[in-house]
Each structure stands twice: as C-alpha cells, then as structure tokens.
Design brief:
It is found in: Cell outer membrane. With 642 residues, the protein is mostly beta strands. The longest helix has 7 residues.
C-alpha cells in the first residue's frame, strides 16, 4: 500500500544567475528525455518531458555550458558546490574519494547519471558515486534536482539527482580545443569534433588531465598526484521523421595517489569507468506519443596498490550495472501530459581485500514501473502526481508516491511550489556481501517535503527565492565498529572482524535555501545563496546530535563585472560552517571561507583567454579531519571554438 501522500505549499526557484554560476531552466531537451507536444517552450528534466519552468513542482538547478566555462574549474564537484544545498567531503585532492551531499542526505542517496545512465557503483562501500574522478571533459550541462525524485529516477533518489549531459553537434562540422596549465604542475587538454546533417549527428571528444597535487594527509610532505584520460562519443541516426537510433559512450581511466590514515604513504589507486547507452526513439499518433527503448551499461573497476608490500595489490573491486528500459510520454490534451515507463536493472559486485583475502561476490535485480501525470487545473496552477512500483528480488515490492503543485501568479512574477515524495533504498551489495556485510539488513525508508516562493522584482533585474525542506528517514544503514563490542555479528565463521553494516538510525533533516540574483545595468551581475541545514540523528545514544560532516551553515557569493562585452572579472566567496567528524559530536572541524578570482577575454569569435586564482588568501582548512586541501593556486587557459 502507498503511504499517505501529503501536499504542502512550496516553491522551487529556476533562476538565471550571474555568468559565474547560472541557475536556469534549459532551453533544449536533454538527449535522454522523451518529449510530448502539449508544451514546447522550456525543458526541465525534473519531469522528464518538455515543461514550462513555471509549472515545475520541484527545485532544479541547471548549469549550462556558459556557466561551466565561466566557473573555469576542471572538477565537476567544485562547480556543483556553488549550488544551494550542496556540500561535499573528500580524502585529499583530485581522484581521491569524494562524496556529494544534497540537503544533508548521504552520498548514496543521490542518483548520478551521465546522459541518463546511472553511475552509482555497486561495488562501492554503500553504492554511492565517487565524484573525485569526474572532470568537466565534454560536458555541456549539469542538472541538479533537489529533494526526493524517486517516481521517475529510481527509488534511491532520496536526496536528489545529478544528471551530467555531454555535448552534441549543432552544425555540419564543428570542433573545440581547450588548454590549461598552472600551479602544482597541473595541465588539462581537451578536444572534440562533431557534425550534424539532416539524418546524422555525431561527436567524438577526449581529454587528458595531470597534476602533482598535494599531500592527502594534512601534515604530510609527499605530493599525491592524479592523472586521468577521458574519451566520449555519440551518434544519432534519424531513420525516418518519426524514428531514430542512438549510441553514446563515456570512458575514464584515472590513477591517483593517496595516503594512509594519519601518515604519508606511497599508496596509489587506479579507476576505470565505462558508460554505454543505446536507444531507439519512435513517435506515434502524429508525435503526441513519444517512445524510447534503451539499454544502459556501466562498469567500474577499482584497484589500490601499496608498493612497499611483496604483493602490492591491496584492494580490487568491480561493479557492473545493466538496465533495460522503456519510457513513454503522451500528450493527453494541450494541458495534460502522462509520463510512464518500465525498467529492469541488474547489478553485480566483486571485491577482494588483502585485509580479508577472500573474493566476495554479490548481485541483485529490481523491476520497476512508474507513471506520472501533470496538468494545469486552472490558469497558472499545475499539479503533478506520480507512483512507482519497485520489485526487488530480495526485498520484495515497494510502492512510492510523489505529489507536487506549482502556482504562477502575477503573470509569472510570483511562483509558489510544493512537493512531497517518498523513497526506499534496498541495502547495497557491499553492505550485504563484503567482509563487513550483513544479510539481515532492512531497506531504508524516507519521506520528503519542500515548500517556498520565488519572486521577481524590478522587472526581471532581481529574482529572489526561499525554500523550506524537510526529510525523515527510518532504518538508515551505518557502519558499526566492533571495537569493544560483544555483538555476535562481530564474529563470522569463528573469525573476528573490525565492524559490520547495521540498521542503526532514524534521522530528521530540515533546512532553508535562500537564492538571489541581480543584474544591475550592463556591467554588474550578482548571485548568492545560503543554506541552513539541521541534519540530526533521531534515535539511539546520539539522538539530537548533528550528522557527521554535514555543515549547518553554508553559502556562496559571486560578483561579475563586465569591463566590455568581451572582458569580465569575477570574485566569488564560498563559506562552509563547522562540522563534526564523529557521531557523538566531540570532534569538530572548523568553518572556513575560500575566495577565488577569475577573468576572461573573448579575443574573437574563435578564441577565449582566461585565468583564475583559487584560494586567493591561502586559507588553511579541512573538509575532513586530517585530510589535506589545496592552497593558493594560479591557472591560465585558452579555449578555441571552430
């Protein structure tokens, strides 16, 4: 049975911010989304179908190519962190373990996709995605959907969804070349070519990144570097006016250095990731019914090495995910759309560790069906409702619901939005079958709400929004240490172990997101956001304590001055409040502020020169206790588009 659905007043801001960090609704459909003919203005992938921004019931941030270029960052995580409600932790520099948290949710509670293909690694500790190796590469847009998005994107999309969209050709022949270099021996080269004809569009791209880095151990002296080679390709063939076929692939091969806990060490790791998508798109009923049949495949291979040992391999893991899916979007009337589909997903994991030298395997499958209806019931008021049914081969059937409303008033100058969503997450393969596994785990369950308002002032010069969100979770899975414990699960087959996964927590999270942007004349643009997040344990001995590594306060401020239409400079500030490094809140990590400066010069229609100084004041800070962060660094680059 579906748990009772509740609805409350809400808003989700879809903003066009200053050039440094754009928060806007896209103006063209994402490649993985089927569309309907009932609407044809804006696209917001929160609904997986073309929808006017004022009708979207959940908050979404879209960083377009202009915003990505303006940010000048090579790492996607640094760009995401400029969005409201987004924080992250990492165990060092590029390539090391990096976890994204949306509105205080765990990293495994966000679904990450490239061109609609899920990236979450079944062999990772809790099935989450490691953002440490995700570089800008050939990315054209990044979409961040906050809050529960389980109906369309999968039951585990509890904190939100991050969808990375790669570039596609728009002209008969086009290409690009990006070159960057700077501090810490950093170099980044990217290039791509593509073309579009009446029947065929294609693109090939590649990149190479290298840096000497800095010590992953905060007090270490040894540099921990990173190297990455990335390739991407896509092709779409228009067979008839109503039928097309496409294939897309992204490959990444990285090697990163890291340190042991609290000590310098020569350890390093290698990660290879492959993402493949094939799809067939076809229209029926004169285009009113859009259909997509697809197969998606991901393979993540991770290995760690310690050259000091006679057998240097210390860890080996491989996670594979296969997904078959159908999606349809039907324009019932000019005012009502239906989105529906079915998916079959199979995940497999293999792990081996020198600390427990036994090869461990696990697999799981889930079959899903979903339907969502969206329509305008009275002028300006759009309702959205959906249901998803997941059938897990181990944890049975679960039915989830989602409900939302968007109400555009005053000719769209005021928008009220509300949404409620549910989520369920079955235990991950590593939590079940690794050396720390527990076959008696229960699924995690979630309820999520959000509410707010967006207001335009002084014409379109100023836009402000405020959103309140709340989430309740039950049966959250955590790692339970066996140090000093007499729990029977601390011994398996007569062999003691250091810990295991256990359903230990209820959590409650609430918060407020404030977002604003202003364009003051032709030269000055401002954007800012602030997030208050109260993420707490709600059970057990740590009831009322703040969740680990979740800042209560954080914010971003950016100001861009356009000296001429072709020359601009930007100053940005990121503030992250204090966090706690343990569940009892006895170990504190101090708050920090980082200031960056950027400048760009559009020399002509083909060439752009840019440069930046990161961490201008050389702030000494930590995201995770005892792990290093970068100091001041200067970088220059060139972009060519032809």
């Amino acid at each position: 049975m579906i748990r009772a659905l509740m609805s409350s007043t809400a808003v989700a801001a879809v903003l066009i911010a200053a050039p440094a960090f754009a928060e806007e609704a896209p103006t063209a459909p994402t490649p993985d989304v089927a569309g309907a003919t009932a609407v044809d203005t804006l696209v917001v992938t929160a609904t997986r179908s073309p929808t006017e921004a004022s009708k979207v019931a959940t908050i979404v941030t879209v960083l377009d190519k202009k915003a990505i270029d303006a940010a000048q960052s090579s790492a996607v995580i640094d760009i995401l962190a400029t969005s409201a409600g987004v924080s992250f932790t990492s165990n060092g520099g590029p390539g090391t373990s990096t976890t994204l948290n949306i509105r205080g949710a765990e990293g495994q509670h966000a679904v990450v996709l490239i061109d609609g293909v899920k990236l979450n690694d079944p062999s990772s500790t809790q099935g989450g995605y490691n953002f440490g190796s995700l570089l800008v590469g050939d990315i054209s847009r990044i979409e961040v959907l906050r809050g529960a998005q389980s109906t369309l994107w999968g039951s585990q999309a509890i904190g939100g969804v991050v969808n990375v969209v790669t570039a596609e050709a728009t002209q008969p022949f086009q290409g690009n070349l990006d070159v960057e270099g700077g501090s810490r021996g950093t170099g980044y080269l990217r290039a791509g070519v593509g073309g579009k004809t009446e029947r065929l569009d294609w693109r090939l791209a590649g990149g190479y990144y290298t840096t000497d880095g800095f010590s992953s151990y905060k007090r270490g002296a040894e540099e921990d570097g990173y190297r990455n080679t990335g390739l991407a390709g896509r092709a779409r063939l228009k067979i008839t006016d109503a039928v097309s076929a496409e294939v897309r692939a992204v490959y990444s091969d990285g090697e990163y250095d890291f340190d042991g806990f609290g000590v310098d060490s020569p350890e390093y790791g290698k990660t290879k990731e492959l993402v493949v998508y094939t799809g067939l798109n076809f229209d029926l009923l004169d285009g009113r019914w859009k259909n997509r049949l697809a197969f998606a495949y991901t393979d993540t291979d991770r290995r760690n090495f310690d050259p000091r040992q006679a057998s240097p391999t210390t860890f080996d893991a491989d996670g594979q995910n296969k997904r078959w899916e159908y999606q349809g979007v039907f324009a019932i009337t000019e005012a009502w759309n239906a989105t529906f589909g079915a998916e079959t997903e199979d995940a497999e994991m293999t792990t081996w560790s020198s600390f427990a030298p036994v090869t461990r395997r696990g697999k799981a499958g889930v079959d899903s069906v979903y339907v969502q209806l969206q329509g305008e019931v009275i002028p300006g008021l759009t309702l959205t409702g959906g249901v998803r049914r997941d059938s897990h081969d181990t944890y049975g059937d679960h039915t989830l619901g989602q409900l939302g409303a968007a109400w555009a008033l005053n000719e769209g100058r005021t928008i009220l939005r509300a949404s409620f969503g549910q989520g369920f997450r079955a235990p991950g393969l590593y939590e079940l079958y690794s050396e720390y596994g527990n076959l008696n785990l229960d699924p995690e369950e979630f309820d999520s709400w959000e509410a707010g308002v967006e207001q335009k002032l002084l014409g379109d010069a100023v836009t402000v929004s405020a959103t309140y969100f709340k989430r309740k979770a039950d049966n959250e899975i955590r790692f339970e240490s066996c140090f000093g414990s007499t729990d029977p699960l601390c011994t398996v087959g007569g062999v003691p172990r250091s810990g295991f996964y256990k359903n230990t927590q209820k959590t409650e999270t609430q918060g407020v997101e404030l977002i604003g942007k202003a364009r003051l004349g032709d030269q000055l643009s401002l954007s800012a956001n602030y997030t208050w997040t109260d993420a707490q344990n709600a059970s057990g001995p740590n009831n009322g304590k703040q969740l680990t590594r979740r800042p209560e306060h954080m914010g971003n401020l950016s100001a861009t001055w356009a000296w001429t239409p072709d020359v601009s400079t930007t100053a940005s500030l990121r503030y992250v409040g204090e966090t706690f490094d343990n569940a009892t809140n006895t170990v504190k990590v101090d708050a920090y502020s980082v200031v960056d400066l950027r400048a760009s010069w559009q020399v002509n229609d083909t060439v752009e020169l840019y440069g930046r100084v990161e961490n201008l004041f050389d702030e000494d800070y930590q995201r995770v206790r005892n792990y290093g962060t970068p100091g001041r660094g200067a970088f220059v680059g060139l972009r060519a588009r032809f």
